[in-house]
C-alpha cells in the first residue's frame, strides 16, 4: 500500500506542475489550476487509499476464514454456514453434527514434533472429508478437534457413516502412532438442537462422555449411544470369531429335478456367540463387508468347507459341485481376488468342484472388469454362477461378455409363481433362454410341492430350498442321504 501511494505521489509531483504551466495562460488561471490540482490529488489519493485498505481487509478476512494447516473452514465460517443450512430445512431433514477429537493430543505432539503434527492434522481433515460421498461442511474448531455437519440420505445411514468415519480417522492416526485413537461426539438435528450453537453444545457434551473411555463414539441421545456400543461390541466379537475360526459352515443340498439325485451343495456361514446367541447371516455378513472382514470370512468358509468335504470323502463321488458366495465388496477388490486366486492355486482338487456365486448387481457394475476376473479364476477349473438372478437390471447381453456357467433364479420369482401368471411366464422364459445358451439353471427358495412341479414342467435342471432340504451339517446330510 505504501509503495503504491509513494509511486503515484511521485509521478503526480513530477508531472502535474508541468501540465499546469503548459495549460495556464495567466497568473490567475495558474493559481486556480494549482488549487484544483491540490484538491484533485487529495480526492484521488483518498479513494486509492480507501480501495487499497478495503482490499487488504477483505484479503485478511478470507485468510482468517480458512485454517492454514488443514484448509478447512474456520469455526466462525462453519457456524454461519451451518446456521444457514439449518434455517432452510425442516426437522425431517437428516442432519447430523459430528465432533472428532484426537485422544492424548499433547503427548502425541511431543512425540511427533511440530511438522509431523501438522501433517497428521492435515491427514485427519482429509479422512473426514472423504469418509463418504454425503454433502458435508467441515471445520477445525480447536487444535485437535474437528466438527462436521453431514446431510444424510436417511437416518438409517447414520450408524454406518459414523462407523466408517471413526475407522478412517483411526486408520490415519495410526500411521503416525500405532496406539493413537480418536473419540467422537454426535448430535442430531431436531432432537438435539435446531441451530449451530445448540448442536455444537449437544455434540460437545457427547464428546466429553466419549473421551472418558477414549476411542469411543457417544451420541447425545443415550439410547443411540447404547445401540452404537452394542454394534461395536458385535463387530469386535465377529473379528474374534473369524480369527479364532468360530464361524461354522452348513450345507444346503441342490437336487437334479429330472432324477431327484443330490448333485451339489451350497456352503452357508453360521455364527453362534455365547452372549448374543445365534447371529443371523443377514446381520453378520453385512457387518463383515462394512468392516473389511470379508476376505478373512471367505477364506475361513472355503477352508472349513474343503476340510469337511475331504474328511467325509464326498467330493467327486456324490457331490459334483460346491457353491460358495463371493460378496460384491470382495469381487471388486483386487486384494480379495488375488487371495482367492492364491487359495485356488494351492487347492487344485477342491477348485475343480468349486462354483463361485456372484450377485447380478456385482456383475453389472463393471462388466469388462467382471469378465476379466472370471477368466482369471476359471483357469483353476472353478465355475461361476450369477446369484439372485432377475432382481437387478438384468442385461442378457452380459452373457456375451462374462463366461458364466450357471444362473440362480432369485427366490422372489419362485415364491410368486403360484399366484402371479406374469412371474410364472418370466421364470419359464429365463429357464428357456438359459438352456438355449447352455447355461445351467438353479431355482432357489423352493418351499412347496406346487413350486417344484411348476419348475419341473419348465424343464428347470436344479433346485434347492426348504421343501427339498434345510441347511445342515455334513453328518446330518449323510444320514439323510443314507451314505
| Poorly predicted runs of 5 or more residues | none
Distance between the first and last residues' Cα: 96 Å
Briefly note the structural class of the backbone: alpha/beta
Shape: elongated
Percent helix, as a range, is 55-70%
Beta-strand portion reads 15-25%
User: What is the mean predicted local confidence, pLDDT?
Assistant: 85
Largest sheet: 8 strands, mixed, barrel
**Radius of gyration over alpha carbons?**
34 Å
Output the strand order for the largest sheet: 6-7-9-10-11-12-13-14
Please give the count of helices. 19
Number of strands: 14
Protein name: Diguanylate cyclase
InterPro entries: Cyclic-di-GMP_PDE-like, EAL_dom, EAL_sf, GGDEF_dom, Nucleotide_cyclase, Rev_trsase/Diguanyl_cyclase
Q: How would you sum up this structure, described in words?
A:
The protein is built from 19 helices and 14 strands. Strands 6-7-9-10-11-12-13-14 form an eight-stranded mixed barrel. A five-stranded mixed beta sheet has the order 2-3-1-4-5, with helices on both faces. 34% of the residues are buried. Strand 4 (182-188), helix 6 and strand 5 form a beta-alpha-beta unit. The mean pLDDT is 85. With 483 residues, it is an alpha/beta fold.
